């Protein structure tokens, strides 16, 4: 995919990481490499430019030389706030949409952006999904394609108290890009020290 064809990408790193004892979970190391580096390595061939959505002191991200986008709404309203600030950033670039990924998910698909574009609904929205071994479909709403045209609708919804991503995406009929979960779910995310051990097993 040429740089001209790529959409901006936003890494959602604004969570509280309570199950990891707080701090920036994506700076933890897995098999010697930081999660954030693994995520950037997967996203960079798919999206350009890239920004990090994170709150607090932005200087801790200085070495990455990427824009750091803090939530524009107070009280940590969740991932949709990161989507919103990403859309506002993209609007300033003249982009039509963004792709978002979670900062704690190091194995997400290398064709995520292309598959999301193909799955987009009439609204321009798409979410990633995968099926487990029982055939149940799981949406992964922090991995999505989000049109800039819906940013004011999203802002109004968040200001009105909306927090659940799927409640908003269903309202706009988001498409689903379904990914295979064999041999493991590519959206496996790291929430606990045990998850780090599992990720290291997968890498090995």
From TrEMBL:
Role description: Transfers a GMP moiety from GTP to Mo-molybdopterin (Mo-MPT) cofactor (Moco or molybdenum cofactor) to form Mo-molybdopterin guanine dinucleotide (Mo-MGD) cofactor.
**Gene Ontology MF terms in the entry:** GTP binding; metal ion binding; molybdenum cofactor guanylyltransferase activity
- UniProt cross-references to Pfam families, sorted A to Z: NTP_transf_3
Swiss-Prot/TrEMBL keywords: Cytoplasm, GTP-binding, Magnesium, Metal-binding, Molybdenum cofactor biosynthesis, Nucleotide-binding, Nucleotidyltransferase, Transferase
Q: Where is the signal peptide?
A: none
What residues does GTP bind to?
12-14, 25, 53, 71, 104
Domain remark in the UniProt entry:
The N-terminal domain determines nucleotide recognition and specific binding, while the C-terminal domain determines the specific binding to the target protein.
Q: Which cofactor does it need?
A: Mg(2+)
Which residues of this UniProt protein bind Mg(2+)?
104
Broad enzyme group: transferase
Q: Which NCBIfam families match?
A: molyb_mobA
Mostly located where? cytoplasm
Q: Which family does it belong to?
A: Belongs to the MobA family.
Q: Name one GO biological process term.
A: bis(molybdopterin guanine dinucleotide)molybdenum biosynthetic process
Q: What is the species listed in this Swiss-Prot or TrEMBL entry?
A: Albidovulum inexpectatum
Name this polypeptide is given: Molybdenum cofactor guanylyltransferase
Tell me the compartments it is located in: Cytoplasm
Describe the subunit structure: Monomer.
Gene of this entry = mobA
Swiss-Prot/TrEMBL catalytic activity? Mo-molybdopterin + GTP + H(+) = Mo-molybdopterin guanine dinucleotide + diphosphate
